[in-house]
Amino acid sequence: MKLSLGKWLLPVYSGLALLFLMIPIGYTFVYSFNDSLKSNITWRGFTFDKWLNVCNVQNGAVCQAFGNSLFIGAVATVVATTLGTMIAIAIVRYRFKFRSQTSLLLFLPMATPEVVLGAGLAAQFLSLGVPKDMLTIILAHTMFCISFVVVTVKARVASLDPALEEAGRDLYGSAMQVFARITFPLLLPGILAAALLSFALSFDDFIITNFNSGAVTTFPKYIYISAARGIPAEANVLASAVFIIALVVVVTVQVSGAAKARRLARLS
Amino acid sequence: MAFAAFSTTTAPSTDPVARRRSPVALFLLLPGILYLVLFFLTPLVSLLLTSFQAPREFGDIGQYDYAFRWQNYVEVVTTYWPHIVRSFSYALAATFFALLISYPLAYFIGVKARKWPLLQSLMLVLVIAPFFISFLLRTLAWKQLFSDESFVVQSLKALSLLGPEAHVTGTAFSVIFGLTYNFIPFMTLPLYTTLERLDVRYLEAGNDLYASPFQVFRKVTIPLSMPGIVAGTLLTFIPAAGDYINASRDFLGGTGTQMMGNVIEANFLVLQNYPSAAALSIILMTVILVIVSIYVKRSGTEELL
């Protein structure tokens, strides 16, 4: 047998690595309780004030930006998830010309640095004379979300047993009925995962937004702009709240997924 | 997750029943493909056209006309070559450190923790947890933790590990540190996906054949986890090379650490020198595409794309 040191090295290291990942999260969370004035750099004492009066600072500029991000994320997610799911179904289920070109077109946005995507769109809007506002941000976010939706949903479509839809058709279900009653419900977990991913990508995007937002401020853009003169603790409050909600959602999905797997295992 | 894009578990497209030609396919594909053509492909073309624009005669700042001014490229390369070199060397360093940090972690979660599924999923949640909090705030947190008045820097100075006049933020170290930190999850997840499917019997076979643990690792584990290594390094290298948050003066960088992204941003959004910004973007994208295709070909993982 090996020395016990060797046995413990990897688990201890892994724990430390995860702890390292958590440091800035912990910092952001702790400083959301800082009784800070304008900037949130030195610790001035504990308070719940910032959590209770999030929108009071700077006439609610933080909350305005946060609301913009929620709205942009929601619209971009709905559009990107719809378009991406349709493409994913077509790719797995149908034969068509220009297949490899289609795959390349879907892969490239993921392999292009964000600054290039952002500058490219901005150059296009500039040459067409399109003013930059909320709409241009939504158009940009939808673009980079589509590819991620396709890869996420594609895996789900591929694992779907075609015999189930076959059965629906044998029972005289119309194409629409088969889709609504069989295909869509079976794809739903994949579609939801894709939608969550899209929303997360859109919500946290800064680089592409910065090139295409004009005067509109999103939450990340607000942080970027205020970084030079100090970020109010309210930004930490909102970010921490998002973190907690996201964590609860993910843990719930994980736990319910595990429970479902156990139930299925018992049944078979 | 996004990482499925680079994993090898793409659907086998051999199902004969389901694969047929139909007008439905066109209906399903057309809107999305059209969208990408309009908002991804044509912007790249307009970026290319912009990169050759010439300043308008007697025009204001920010007024340019379509031309074929290839000298734009010569100018940006001669002016900004330190930024170009920095972008790729910082990205390379960050990719290397992220791989070094992530591999043992991914190995533990994917191989050693298999016996405890709950621990495994808890650790995975912690790996993706940074995604749930703003990228910018995380980077700012590091800036504050490394500021001159911070506990870390004060202790290093007290121990004389750092000169009294030295700074941590604004240096190449802090930029590479920030890039490494921010992309560790992008590295760990694809590594985990391949290591999770690693058949440990291959490792046992290696042991049985009197290979040292190091030999087993080098000759069996590494080759079997190659798809994850390729995916993880690409997912780190590409965004790191184009990043300008970490290197920004308001975050972890300083005047001497500016990368291509910072110059593209400044030229486009502040100086309104669109052709220079466009030319630099085209250079960045071309270099990345060349690196990616060579890398993917050489590592024999072309099916990733």
Outline the secondary-structure elements.
The complex is a heterodimer of chains A (268) and B (305).
Chain A: H1 4-30, H2 49-52, H3 61-93, H4 99-111, H5 114-128, H6 134-158, H7 162-170, H8 175-204, H9 207-212, H10 219-226, H11 233-267
Helix pairs in contact in A: 3-6, 3-8, 3-10, 4-6, 6-8, 7-8
Chain B: H1 23-51, E1 54-55, E2 64-65, H2 71-110, H3 117-128, H4 135-145, H5 151-158, H6 172-196, H7 200-208, H8 213-224, H9 226-242, H10 260-270, H11 274-298
Antiparallel strand pairs in B: 1-2
Describe it.
The complex is a heterodimer of chains A (268) and B (305). Chain A is mostly helical and 268 residues long. Chain A has a domain at 67-238: MetI-like (MetI-like fold), CATH 1.10.3720.10. Chain A is 76% helix and 0% strand. Chain A contains eleven helices and no strands. In chain A, helix 4 (99-111) packs across helix 6. By secondary structure, chain B is an all-alpha fold. Chain B has a single domain (81-304), classed as Orthogonal Bundle (MetI-like fold), CATH 1.10.3720. Chain B has eleven helices and two strands, in the order H-E-E-H-H-H-H-H-H-H-H-H-H. In chain B, strands 1-2 form a two-stranded antiparallel ribbon. The two termini of chain B are 16 Å apart. Chains A and B meet through helix 1, helix 3, helix 4, helix 5 and helix 6 of A and helix 1, helix 2, helix 3, helix 4 and helix 6 of B.
User: For the CA atoms, what is the radius of gyration of chain B?
Assistant: 23 Å
Q: What is the helix/strand order of chain A?
A: HHHHHHHHHHH
Instruction: Give the termini separation of chain B.
Output: 16 Å
Low-confidence stretches of chain B: 1-18
Structural class of chain B: mainly alpha
Overall 3D geometry of chain A?
globular
Secondary-structure element sequence of chain B? HEEHHHHHHHHHH
The CATH class of the domain at 67-238 in chain A is Mainly Alpha
Rg on CA atoms of chain A, Å: 23 Å
Q: How would you state the average pLDDT of chain B, rounded?
A: 87
CATH architecture of chain B, please?
Orthogonal Bundle
Q: CATH first level of chain B: which class?
A: Mainly Alpha
What's the pLDDT, averaged over the residues of chain A?
A: 88
Number of strands of chain A: 0
- Residues in β-strands, percent of chain B: under 5%
Structural class of chain A: mainly alpha
Model regions low in confidence, pLDDT < 50 over at least 5 residues of chain A:
none
